[in-house]
Structures are given as structure tokens and as C-alpha cells.
Amino acid sequence: MEKKLLLKIRLLLVFFIVCLVGAGVTAFPLEWEMRLLCDWMDISLTEPLEAYTGLSLWIATVTHGIIETNINYPFLLYGTDWLAFAHIGIAVAFVGPLLDPIRNKWIIQWAMIMCVGNLPLAFICGPIREIPFYWTLIDCSFGIFGIVPLIICYRYIKQLEEIA
After folding, report:
1. Reduced to 3 states, what is the DSSP secondary structure of residue 51?
2. Mean pLDDT of 130-143
3. Rounded to the nearest 5 degrees, what angle is found at the Cα of 126, between the Cα atoms of 124 and 131?
4. Is the pLDDT of residue 164 over 90?
5. How far is CA 136 from CA 7, 20, 43, 56, 108, in A?
6. Burial class for 150, CB neighbours closer than 10 Å (0-12, 13-18, 19+)
7. How many domains does the chain have?
8. CB–CB of 87/111 below 8 Å?
9. What is the DSSP code (8-state) at residue 50?
10. Model confidence at 1, in pLDDT bands (50, 70, 90)?
11. Which structural domain range is residue 25 located in?
12. CA triplet 71, 74, 75: central angle to 5 degrees?
């Protein structure tokens, strides 16, 4: 039973680590990703923004903003490089619970708190930064979906603690 629980914990943690790293590395090639998304959504970057509505308008606006920032103020995107690094650094923290889940269960607790903290950040800063409400909900989904494997993992760790 102990080995089975340990395997489940480790699989959940590996999944969470891969997701964190994946989310992080996507912050590096933002302009390329947004151009790719525009191509996929048939958004022409030569058309005026007024030619679009809804999600297409938002994607076109963000893409233009990233392109213009890259041309005129490339140093600002250095912040997204640090965002990527932070995701990778946070992922490294989960090596502790991967190796010794009981001793390092506090990292899982901290991560669950961060997932919950994602919600007020999105709902407070989203409107301040003029982020569309539907995009704020997408941002919230990272905390909502992220907490699920963490809760399951934490429950498994508590079970492991009882039998160990």
C-alpha cells in the first residue's frame, strides 16, 4: 500500500512539474506564439484592429502590443523571461516532495495557497490592466485546475503519513 501511494504521489508531482515547466517555457517565445495563433485564427496583422471583435480583437491587440513592444522597448519583455524562469524555479521546488513527500508536504500546502491566491490577483489586476473578463477567467483556470492534482496529492501524502 505504501509503495502504491508513493507512486501515485510521484506521478501527480511529475505531472505538476511538467505543467509548470511547460507554462514557463511558453513565456519565452511570445511574439512567435502570438503570430502563430493569429495565423491559426485567420487574423491578419496588416488589417486594422477595428476589423475584429471579441476574442479575435483581443488576440490581435495583444499580438500588436507584443510586436510593438519588441520593436520599441524590447527590455520590457525581459519581465516575461523572468516569469518563465520563475515557473521553472517553482517546478524545481517540487523535487523535495518528489523525494520525500511527508517531510516536504508543506510545499504542496504552499502551492495550494498560491493556486487560491491566483483568483484575487486575476480579479483585482485584470480590470486594472484592462484585461477582458473572459481572459481573467482563463487566468483563474490555472489556479482552479492546478489545485486539483495538489489536493489529491496532499490527501495521498496524509494517507502515507498515517501508514508510515
Report:
1. helix
2. 93
3. 160
4. no
5. 35, 19, 22, 16, 25
6. buried
7. 1
8. no
9. G
10. confident
11. 2-163
12. 160
Cell 513592444 maps to which residue?
Answer: 69
Alpha carbons 61 and 130: distance in angstroms, whole number: 12
Residue 75 C-alpha cell reads as: 527590455
Q: What's the Cα-to-Cα distance from 81 to each of 25, 62, 100, rounded to whole Å?
A: 9, 17, 30
Is 126 within 8 Å of 135 (Cβ atoms)?
Answer: yes
Report how far residue 164's alpha carbon sits from residue 155's, in angstroms, rounded to the nearest whole number: 14
Residue 137's identity, in one-letter code, is L
Cα–Cα separations (whole angstroms), residue 82 to 31, 118, 159 = 16, 18, 37
Radius of gyration of the chain from Cα atoms?
19
Neighbouring C-beta atoms of residue 23, cutoff 10 Å: 17
Amino acid, res. 58: W
Give the H or E element holding residue 73. Answer: none
Res 138: pLDDT: 92
Regarding pTM above 0.70, the answer is: yes
The cell for 135 is 481572459
The C-alpha cell of 21 is what?
A: 515547466
Cα-to-chain-centroid distance, residue 46: 30
Helices (H), the chain: 2-25, 30-40, 54-72, 78-93, 95-99, 105-128, 133-163
d(CA 131, CA 24): 21
